[in-house]
Task: inverse folding
């Protein structure tokens, strides 16, 4: 029988050391790049994210002559070219959810934990690989959107360069915002474990929660609004003066990071305690 | 070596596994037998550290599996067929597992060949049959060339050729000195593969016993006797303390006396014998007998071992 390479397992020496974080990172990278859902979500993020931005910029340029002076003066060129990021946040979020929930829906989670039973280490590798991927995809989308958008705006419309006030912050920060939202989605996926449930929760936080908060009494509504992810995102991308009832861009991003870390920590502790 | 001591798992009010203790030795194929829902898979998941025991403990080579330095190289497990992402190919599935334990890609290809999946290694696993899924699961279990192997219902979905292949594989692995623990709800399958069986019912240990012992212990072992003077022989045997049943076809089923004793008694009386045949219960019957009281899901047609042999007294 030629099933095994060693015929005497009692003399089989295990290599020294133990499975490392790097081994797990390699494995997670193989996992993420060998399923179609990754290609789809990344494709949608880049193509639609950039496409919507470009379209809005082109339309704005075409109607520039008929735009009144007031609107022209308050025109936010960087933010207009980043409008596609609001679409990108959903596809990046869906990928974040799937990275976790697909392991449960397919049952591969048991193969994963049988190969690497230290769950925290597996989870860290997962967060690392997904976080890096989401960061690169979001930043590429953001920067390409910006340059293409500004090219399409061109004279006589107001347009910006990265050196324009707030522009670099809006572009780089916009990418970071989408990446951190993706980690929030991943945290939700870890806690909820079901694809549909986690995606619903993620979309609910971005779209439904603001509507509910708006229905609250005026002052209370304004106090709460600043804590909502969508408001934080708007604040980061806006360059023509601060928004009402919003954190400043970097403070907002910090708040968002706190949400992400909290969800990932809760997800990790549940991962330790629950049966796989 | 796998050792379970007082292993217990409750899911809410449901007692899936209750005070289970057993030992799986290296060098043998140990079958893990029980009706559906008797706690076999739960026990296997606890061995692998996937489910935490409510009470008790289970160790592999004297340690908890979670502490393993090279888990895949120490313990290989096939827990469920088709626990594969349907969009990922067989090769990539094995690759991502191999990478966790620093196992080479050459080993992945070697195993694809061993389980006969090389030609479909690049195809998406969603298109695989149950049998192909089993083969992939077996490849994953063998990936790290581990000393301890667990297989949960490995022959499910395999064709006769595949079943024979698995049977030989398990025996071969045990012969190499490995610990092989394989679950099944089919006694007949185990009788061909296992040296020893751990039998459970409703989560509790019924018996850990070698296949030979199991057969000899069964109360379904009896001697069939035919004689033109059956009634006379029956009385004589009963005086000797044997339990004798007169069957519809006129034969006698004798328990509590072996063929030697019956033959000698017949010669002494004397009565003529037309048949004197010791009947050994099939392993299936021995198993049914042991688990009779602990079957979770009864079908509507009951066919216990007693009915099957027609040996009602």
Result:
């Amino acid at each position: 029988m030629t099933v095994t390479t060693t015929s005497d397992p009692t003399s089989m020496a295990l290599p020294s050391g133990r499975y490392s974080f790097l081994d797990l990172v390699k494995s997670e990278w193989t996992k993420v790049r060998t399923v179609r859902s990754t290609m789809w979500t990344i494709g949608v993020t880049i193509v639609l994210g950039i496409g919507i931005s470009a379209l809005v910029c082109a339309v704005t340029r075409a109607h520039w002559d008929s735009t009144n002076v007031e609107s022209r003066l308050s025109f936010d060129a960087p933010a207009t070219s980043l409008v596609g990021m609001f679409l990108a946040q959903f596809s990046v979020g869906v990928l974040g959810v799937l990275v976790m929930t697909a392991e449960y829906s397919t049952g591969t989670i048991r193969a994963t934990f049988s190969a690497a039973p230290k769950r925290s280490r597996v989870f860290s590798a997962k967060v690392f690989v997904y976080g890096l991927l989401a960061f690169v995809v979001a930043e590429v989308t953001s920067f390409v959107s910006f340059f293409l958008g500004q090219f399409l705006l061109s004279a006589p419309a107001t347009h910006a360069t990265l050196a324009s006030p707030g522009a670099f912050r809006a572009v780089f920060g916009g990418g970071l915002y989408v990446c951190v939202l993706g980690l929030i989605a991943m945290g939700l996926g870890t806690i909820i474990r079901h694809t549909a449930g986690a995606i619903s929760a993620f979309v609910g936080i971005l779209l439904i929660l603001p509507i509910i908060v708006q229905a609250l009494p005026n002052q209370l509504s304004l106090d709460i609004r600043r804590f909502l992810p969508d408001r934080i995102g708007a604040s980061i991308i806006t360059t023509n003066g601060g928004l009402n009832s919003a954190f400043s861009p970097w403070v907002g991003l910090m708040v968002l990071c706190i949400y992400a870390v909290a969800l990932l920590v809760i997800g990790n502790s549940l991962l330790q305690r629950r049966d796989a | 070596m796998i050792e379970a001591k007082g292993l217990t798992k409750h899911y809410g009010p449901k007692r899936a596994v209750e005070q289970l203790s057993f030992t799986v030795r290296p060098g043998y194929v140990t079958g893990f037998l029980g009706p559906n829902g008797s706690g076999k898979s739960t026990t296997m998941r606890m061995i692998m550290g996937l489910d935490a025991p409510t009470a008790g403990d289970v160790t592999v080579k004297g340690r908890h599996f979670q502490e393993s330095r090279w888990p895949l190289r120490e313990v290989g497990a096939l827990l469920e067929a088709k626990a594969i992402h349907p969009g990922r190919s067989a090769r990539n599935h094995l690759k991502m597992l191999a990478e966790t334990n620093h196992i080479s890609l050459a080993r992945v290809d070697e195993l694809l060949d061993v389980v006969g999946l090389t030609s479909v290694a690049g195809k998406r696993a969603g298109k695989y049959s149950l049998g192909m899924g089993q083969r992939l699961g077996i490849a994953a279990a063998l990936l790290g060339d581990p000393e301890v192997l667990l297989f949960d219902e490995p022959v499910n979905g395999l064709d006769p050729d595949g079943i024979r292949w698995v049977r030989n594989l398990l025996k071969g692995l045990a012969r190499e000195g490995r610990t092989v623990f394989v679950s099944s709800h089919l006694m007949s399958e185990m009788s061909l593969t296992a040296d020893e069986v751990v039998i459970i019912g409703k989560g509790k240990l019924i018996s850990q016993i070698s296949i030979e012992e199991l057969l000899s212990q069964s109360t379904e072992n009896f001697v069939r006797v035919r004689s033109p003077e059956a009634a006379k022989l029956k009385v004589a045997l009963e005086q000797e303390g044997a339990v004798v049943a007169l069957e519809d076809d006129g034969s006698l089923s004798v328990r509590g006396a072996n063929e030697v004793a019956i033959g000698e008694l017949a010669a002494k009386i004397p009565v003529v014998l037309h048949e004197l045949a010791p009947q050994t219960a099939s392993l299936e019957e021995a198993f049914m007998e042991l688990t009779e009281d602990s079957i979770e899901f009864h079908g509507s047609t009951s066919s216990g071992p007693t009915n099957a042999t027609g040996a009602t007294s």
Summary: Residues 2-210 of chain B form a domain with the Rossmann fold fold (CATH 3.40.50.300).
